[in-house]
Design goal:
With 246 residues, this protein is an alpha+beta fold. It has 2 domains: 70 residues, no CATH class; 142 residues, no CATH class. It is 21% helix and 20% strand. The chain contains 5 helices and 11 strands. The strands form 4 sheets. A 5-stranded mixed β-sheet has the order 3-8-9-10-11, covered by helices on one side. Helix 3 crosses helix 4. The longest helix has 14 residues.
Length: 246
């Protein structure tokens, strides 16, 4: 830290307060040219921006940070909107089960978000007089609304977190069954977990009978364990292809 302190002190000593104040008034905090400090050994990189104080004494510098900002993450609404948008494209009557697939690429999305999006938000009904509470699902899901079941043409939804090709051996598809489907599924596909809702609003989950990698005939640590592109096999000196032995 002593190296960082010395580096910052030298940088601050070179700045003109009036010039910094003018840049700040015109472009805000990030409108002022910053200073980047790197520690190659530790892999750290920090960028500092000067901010002129309302008054100053030569040589009196203050170092500070901005406070962190917290926000509520609402993945349920995004999942619900994505499924609704897909379902609207297929009409109301296909004469056979309709299953939609949804890839989940959001960082914090999980089964709870999908569950609430499909079956309605999970809440507690509390009696203010006794304090007793009862689990309940709000009628705001893809499959249940204020007037009862909806989107009956959608028999099920399959979700999968981060379905990139290089994760094929680790993917865990999840089948969510619509209990009010006009064309119910007549089977439960293997290689994926299955969730259904019961009369009390509880959503149960049955694990898959076998991992998806078995269907794809992949090893558990595919594409390993060896490096995908060994250094010795890489083209060199302008070569554009691998060379074979004669």
């Amino acid at each position: 830290m002593s190296r960082l302190a010395k580096d910052l002190q030298a940088w601050l000593d070179e700045l003109e307060p009036d010039e910094v104040r003018q840049q700040f008034e015109q472009g805000g905090t990030f409108g002022v040219e910053g200073h980047t400090w790197r520690d190659n050994n530790a892999g750290w990189q920090l960028t500092f921006f000067p901010m002129a104080k309302s008054s100053h004494v030569d040589g009196d510098h203050v170092l500070g940070t901005f406070g962190a900002e917290a926000r509520t993450i609402d993945d349920t609404t995004s999942v619900r909107q994505a499924i609704e948008g897909k379902a609207r494209k297929y009409g109301k009557a296909l004469g056979r089960p309709l299953i939609l697939a949804l890839g989940l690429f959001r960082m914090f999305v999980d089964d709870t978000d999908v569950m609430d999006a499909l079956y309605g938000d999970a809440v507690l009904l509390i009696d203010p007089n006794t304090g007793d509470h009862t689990p309940y699902r709000k009628p705001n899901g893809v499959w249940i609304g204020p007037n009862g079941p909806r989107r009956e043409q959608l028999s099920a939804v399959v979700t999968c977190e981060n379905p990139e090709a290089w994760r094929a051996a680790k993917l865990e598809p999840h089948l969510w069954v619509n209990p009010w489907a006009a064309e119910p599924l007549q089977c439960e596909p293997p290689y994926m977990a299955v969730s259904k809702i019961d009369e009390s609003g509880f959503v149960g989950k049955d694990a898959s009978s076998a991992p998806l990698r078995d269907l794809l005939e992949l090893s558990e640590n595919w594409p390993g364990p060896e490096p995908p592109f060994p250094l010795r096999d890489r083209p060199t000196n302008g070569d554009v292809g691998a060379k074979g032995d004669n």
